[in-house]
């Protein structure tokens, strides 16, 4: 990653996990160490980065690598405790190996474990500090091929960091402690602290904490040094989020993260390890994000991230793409999006500034909209090479927060993420925006540049599909399809009535899955909820998820449907215009009740019943769509109703043909 808009992507052919990365600073190259025990040297100076050299370790597992600034030697530590040295120019092993038994000699009686740290002394690049997992530290003289000193601590080491003068170093340990060592007295650390440990009343050692996985020790010319570490929190707070701790003098600041910390790196004014480091920022790589903390301000604000790394901050559930949008749309969305951004960001420029950015070849504006599992919607500018987030909308804000134990209301529809966005509609010209959510609701949004404080209008729609298990109606007594005047029949499905579960002693009916906020809601500039339409429970059965959505912004209409039926709503008048079950849509009755056009009006009713009876016999499962094609109807020619079907022919058809047009030519006048 470089300056905003600059990034490149490359992948190892082996597909092995990447353990560690080391830049050849100011040389346009990168070393990667992978889980298959291979080292790779990448050339970053060409347009498409490529591997120049690779080196595979066959007998040992790689655990840690270190490449000193402006050095041609790459130090590689292994699981066996040995340290190998690779020539970075030829990318072959030099033959110089620091064997673990030579390094520790008789300081411990057991194997010291894998190499967990390697670093050269800031004062002398010919001396190497080796940290072993079991707590052993060796200061190795590369020229004389012997250890200058050895130190031992009874807690496992996770990382080591030098003071820039090269006289002291700091270690982080598995018990949440930090130890500070002096090269002149390696027998024991001259300072031991457990930053997050509780101090015992009887003066004993503070209680142990979680391991400190990494520590960095950075000095400043005009202030106290910075000690920055990840982990090390107390065990008695298991619900605390992953944290980065910054110690500056006597002040300790804990920054809680939204995701687990993978690694962090302190950005300093100089690459030379023997100068005052002057740290100004910390880059923290999280499992699902990348953040940069400003160290120059006392409250340690984060920088506003220009990269689209958080596109999956919440899982993407649907997307829409729009090309050649009105030219004023992207600036308008960006301006309202900028006002929504959280306060407290650093006022400084993004500190990662490498590379040169060129605009893409396309000049027309492109916008991508992503809907997410948490109910958020993000508008992205896709006109350039990389995505730039313009505006974020949280659809869940129109609903009341669910209290503990109330989540069962939507459990029949979704087990989690009740606000997940399923479908979206957007009209770039009128700026009308509509979303359909997983909990059977539709929200209409209007765009406004002004803040409002108002109540949210809502409608409830009852969509129900009711079919008897066995339908064998007689035309004289039971019309097979319900009367069109009762578009939502009240008879319960025989198949659904046996397994309906009562909730708290009462059957749920005519209630939505989520509660809309009843009080006035403050809506900032941007997209503001104009109308919420919710499907309701019917006779103890939850509403089915919405499967189709269409909007006509010119007429102010929204239509949506599911397996149970279709609804059309006028969102200008906030009125339900049409609500029909699936059977009614495919039945012989017309929702608009036009009069039949057949000249045989006296016999039309009987003909309709015979005709639909024949179709119902042909389709025992009436939840399927009734198809009235020529092939379907000719298969009924041998049935007793074939004569009546002949009489139901359209008056415009040619004599002798069996073509039947439904439902425009067959109307039931009930």
UniProtKB/TrEMBL annotation:
Q: Does the keyword Repeat apply?
A: yes
Spell out the residue ranges making up region: Disordered.
472-493
Output compositional bias ranges, type Low complexity. 484-493
| Segments annotated as WD repeats | 150-191
Which processes are annotated in GO (biological process)? exocytosis; Golgi to plasma membrane transport
Q: Name one GO cellular component term.
A: SNARE complex
| Pfam families, alphabetized | LLGL, WD40
Q: Boundaries of each Lethal giant larvae homologue domain copy?
A: 193-301
Q: Which GO terms describe its molecular function?
A: GTPase activator activity; myosin II binding; syntaxin binding
- Which InterPro entries does this UniProt record tie to the protein? Lethal2_giant (IPR000664), LLGL2 (IPR013577), WD40/YVTN_repeat-like_dom_sf (IPR015943), WD40_repeat_dom_sf (IPR036322), WD40_rpt (IPR001680)
Query: Which terms are listed as keywords in the entry?
Result: Exocytosis, Repeat, WD repeat
Q: Which PANTHER family match?
A: LETHAL 2 GIANT LARVAE PROTEIN (PTHR10241), SYNTAXIN-BINDING PROTEIN 5-LIKE (PTHR10241:SF19)
Q: Which family does it belong to?
A: Belongs to the WD repeat L(2)GL family.
Q: In its UniProt entry, what is this protein called?
A: STB5L protein
Native organism is Catharus fuscescens
